[in-house]
Amino acid sequence: MKRLRYLLPIILQAFVQFALGQPGANDSLLKIIQEDRRDQAELSALNELAGNYLRTDLAKAKTCLYRAIELAGNGNFPIQLGSAYAQMVAIHQSTGLKDSATRYLHLLEKLSEKTPAARSTYVAAAGLFYRREKNLKAALPFMIEALDKRLDLGRTRDEHAIAPAEEAFGAVGLRCHEPAKLDDTIKEMIGVNRPVVVDVLVDKTENCFPMIPSGAAHNDMLLGPDDKAAKPMSEEGMVLV
Question: Which CATH superfamily is domain 2-157 in?
Fold first, then answer.
């Protein structure tokens, strides 16, 4: 085990050097990893890079995750550790290694007991695991809890709360609650080569534009708060908006 611990950075460095020379590689992530800072930024890069490799090279994905687990275990990075465990669950289950997948799910469960912030990652991973096993009875409680936690995100201003649940499914979670940051959030979304879930918070008292007034045609669409409806909406119509 000690030998593997020392070999992992060497193996990782080798394929980092190889990938840096490939067109279309994840340059920014690889450069962060190559700096070997052993911090949260490197852990996040390792997890994201592993997610990018999931569909193309499982060996590289697992190497990234082994490194992330080692670094997170040596430091105080429970969220990143949970994300790595969750991806390991998915990889081993998809390759028929159910016992290994179960072991990583158990490790994730233990982590969530010690670190409540990792609970959402565990719930999402467990729900997905049992659903893939076609054990809907076991999956249902986790799916319901995951939905409840997802709905709770709409009542919080924690812009990082969404990420662990989405990362457990191999996606990236982003949140935007300021109009001035929407363009940057969209650019960030477009720049990620993975599925992305963007949670855009809108005040419940605001109308969302563009919108079509109740009973109006598509060419009567209102593009902003300065636009006025061609005819006043009835009280019944306002209820529907």
Answer: Tetratricopeptide repeat domain (1.25.40.10)
